[in-house]
Amino acid sequence: MLSPGTTVALRVCAVGLRPEVPVVRLWGLLGERSADYVRLRREIQAAAGPRLAAAPGHGRLEAGGAELRTGDLGLVEVVGLWYRCCVVSHHGQDYRVFLLDEGCTVVTSAYYLARGCKELFRLPPEVLGCVVADVMPSGGPKVVACGDAPASTWTVEAMEFLSYLHGKEVSGLVQEVMTPQLVVLELPQLVAQMHHLGLARQVPSSWFCQVLRRCLTYGPLRNQLKLQPPACSPVTSAVPQLHRVLLSCQPASPALDYFYPQLQLGVTEPVLVTHVCDPHRIYCQLQSLSQEIRCLSDTMRHAYDRCEQDLSPTVGSPYAARGIDGRWYRALLLELIAGEQDQQVALVIFVDYGRKEIVTRANLRHLPVECFRVPVVTYPCALQGISDGGCGWSPSQIDELKALVLGKGVSACITTFNSFEHLYYVSLYGENELELPPGAPPVALMHRDLASAPVGGVRLKLGVFHDAQVSHLRDPSEFWLQLHEHHPLFRQLRQSMWNFYCDATKLDGAGWVLQPGSLCCASGKEDVFYRAVITSVLDSGVEIHLVDRGNTEIVDRCAVKELLPQFRELPALALKCCLAGVSPLRGSWSEASLALNPCTAVTVRGGPVAAIHNSKSSESLPAQKCESKENLPISRRQNYVEMKPGSSYGGQLEVGSTVNVVVSYVENPSNFWCQLSRNCHDLNTLMAEIQEYCKNSSHPPAWPNSVCLAQYSEDEKWYRALIISEVPSAEKVEVIYVDYGNRQMVSLTNLRSTNERFLRLEAQAFRCSLYNLIQPNGQDPFAWDEEAIQAFQEFVDTSSHFELKCTIFALASINNKELFNIVDLMTPFQSACQFLTKRGVARPLSPQKPLVSSVQLHSYYYSMHDIKIGSEEDVYITHVEDPWTFFCQLERCADILAQLTDNISHLSEKMTSLKTLQKSGSLCLAKYTDNQWYRGVIMKTKPNTEVFFVDFGNTETIEKDHLLPLPSDACDILLLPMQAIKCSLSDISNYLVDNVNDIMTENLFLNMNCIFKTVQDDKCLTFKY
């Protein structure tokens, strides 16, 4: 039994910190679990049940599964284990429960709850609750004197600091024992550290005792906590007291006795603005009942001015209250503030006017029945279309709004109702139907920081230095930055979200449907809240991308809530970047290359490409220099639209790669154009510069230069274009818009000469086709009917809500002129080929189907060979560069490879007299040192010819007379997918590289078993010997 002055060592398992509650609470265990609780846990697993409800979708409560009420004890299943719990609150089938022996709160459903027998609750809760003594928010001890007055609250930085106590052991002195499971604990080292960091301040014990007393007398808890525990089982006395302390940190949810009629949406009502807190909390009273409300006040004045009542006020009950102006109002009691009973004061809200006041007990009266006959017609409202960006409103902004509307009769157009916050969103109109405030949203109400900060889409100028911090690092080719200039906005946003979502219990289990692509608010490991996008809904949780940090995490479903509109205004603050001018030495980045300084200066080279300037170190990353394309000579402008075979789109679209794309133009499933998602910001910046340039330019393009800027007829904006044909008599030319793919006839007057700087960004659109993966229902593989085109367009439009991936299966051309990529588009749910096949507008094809005569292949086909994540395969290792780059063949494809060898042998005998091709990127047959012929690609021709063997993974120098071209009609050889699978070994430390390399090289062409951990681009493998 603990007593004052006892020294305890507490292993922290939960931290309780809420913005408006000025005390720090910890829950933890005293030492290791005792044998009694270990035995109890085993008994709970054996005796749990029956569940309160059937599985979702299987009906209502089971027989005997009576509903648990607030304060009841029960059992809850969490990840397959049962725990003792106490119900904190519940709404329908959704419950919030406190785990008695773990010290944390979870959100669950009735299916995961059971009552449990009384024997399981004989032991008291193993967790001990502590209040940290003599520490308060850094603003000092303040008492909320009015509903609108700002009080000192905890910051999100304080929450993050305290979250690091999870799992740590703290030692302190018991100052006071409040209940058997709740003590006041002195932790001087923790308090001193928080004070030093500016997160809190140490206060005198007398001050702290007053504040703590007020917290524990929140609502009706003071008298309940003074009750002597009954002499029954220890848990039944300890848990309710612990539960009440938990409730003291929850916002009050009083049961209203007033009647609030629901307003009709889409109508305009004349209202009187009675109170203004901020633009998102304005109280509007229907003018149609204003006279009756004033009469109520007069009736209460005559009844109460000359009489007194002795009452015991109860939080959540309706009363008549006299305000500081001496008038009587209908009120709702929100909070009782500490003091002896005859000196007790209360915080009330005047329901007909919306304002809050502190009143004495002597100025409270019971409301007669007749005062409830007039409904409450004063509604909390928020101005539609105006936002603070999640950063709060300044006093000057609120004062300006009050001057415009407070106490005035206006018209309110009611647009929507937010059931979570019980708010109506309205637009206010004054005389002559002028919107109030003028202009929506008004500049006067814009947050000062938002108005001046360059975050309107977070566009950065080229060549400008920015102080930044690396918020998430994957590798030097993909990392995220936060600009230092945005830190104040980010801090204010996080604080506002924490303040709101700590109290937003109505959002728990509110029936919000989790969908990929939806914006959400997610609580992280530090118990703070972040903005995120749902990327995938899994059985085990939800995968989210944190838009202000850049990283991706998997969190529990209960950690995800809907992101409300006021937190969506500020753009995503994490900027996705890659390091300019470098690439990894051996195809992948080593651990040493991940040593970027977190705080650094960056120069923007172009869109997401950045040069890092480390002020603390001059060391460079282990990488090789890449050829820059910023200063290409005019003679190389053909790269503007041309994509070379084998290295299309600057090497970013290698056959077998998977990239995120945006579909920019659709003609049909065999002819559409895509852009890389990663370059969209670059393109938007370039488009803005082009529009500005064309405003001040009237120069026609210089003939015969075909590169120009052309005005698009539908939106009259200017785009980069290439002239592809002329109509001299009509003074028109046909152009292709190289960043989008569509074509148009354009008048010569709508052409402009381009500027050299507009050519630095390569053409963004690349042509794609589903050709030879699926085929229309007719015989012509390029002739699609209108139904198929509409279905494909539907797939593209629907995929705009998700991350659309594009896998490159081959590179081809039409009549050796028009290059296109044979691809499939994939959402997280299905591919374009699957979608069209299921719709019945296309049929699947085998890749070995012969090509039509007009189509030529410029690469071999890529295949994923139906490999699934987690699947086991027998493989042969065919070539090893290092543990992170090696190639395998599947054992189940041995017969296919044997047939391929025979086909190549027969073909090579017929072609010995043909001349060999010398062009880089050409497909060929090459003779290896074993005098056998194999499929290959010519990688370079000078100084020596090097060939990559696509079915084995090695690159060798080959004599020119050992090369043969592949004829286009050799379908059995040309159309068979490449058999060498590029892989990377998972979970290998650097110091094991040499040993692993030797082992893998010694086991070339030996049969081995492996597990595929990822299936995309380079596969990661775990081998079994």
Automatic annotation (TrEMBL):
> Which protein, by its recorded name, is this?
Tudor domain containing 6
Which Pfam family name is an example for this entry? TUDOR
Q: Which InterPro entries match?
A: SNase_OB-fold_sf, Tudor, Tudor_domain_containing
Q: Which regions span the lipid bilayer?
A: none
Q: Which residues form a coiled coil?
A: 890-917
Identify the keywords attached in UniProt to this record, alphabetized. Coiled coil
Q: Which SMART domains match?
A: TUDOR (SM00333)
- Which PROSITE patterns would you find in this protein's record? TUDOR (PS50304)
What is the top-level taxon of the source organism?
A: Eukaryota
Tudor domain location: 312-374, 513-570, 701-761, 917-973
Keyword Coiled coil in the entry? The reply is: yes
